[in-house]
């Protein structure tokens, strides 16, 4: 199950967050700042080294809300990578 890091802003919504993100493996986390990302960054597809966290991209739907999706970058090839957002 995904790890949900709560703060006072999202604590009252933890059940809703688990319903949305609960089907993801424990490799993922929803941070207290609202970013959905891997707990441990993925490996680069070109060189196989672990990528670095590189912020997030925000995606929104009218009338529903927005979500912050974690992104990564390879320190060797500067190849960007982003989490899947098929739940959105």
Structural notes for this entry:
- The chain has 88 residues and is mainly beta.
- The protein has one domain.
- Helices cover 9% and strands 35% of the residues.
- The protein contains 1 helix and 6 strands, in the order E-H-E-E-E-E-E.
- It has one helix at 14-21, and strands at residues 3-4, 28-30, 35-38, 52-61, 65-73, 80-82.
- Strands 1, 2, 3, 4, 5 and 6 form a 6-stranded mixed sheet that branches.
- The chain is elongated.
- The model has no long low-confidence stretch (mean pLDDT 76).
Give short descriptive properties of this protein.
88 residues; mainly beta; six-stranded mixed β-sheet; 1 helix; elongated
What topology does this entry show?
Elements: E1 3-4, H1 14-21, E2 28-30, E3 35-38, E4 52-61, E5 65-73, E6 80-82
Parallel strand pairs: 1-2, 3-5
Antiparallel strand pairs: 2-3, 4-5, 5-6
Number of strands: 6
Q: Could you say which structural class the secondary elements and strand pairing correspond to?
A: mainly beta
Task: State the shape.
Answer: elongated
Helix-strand topology string: EHEEEEE
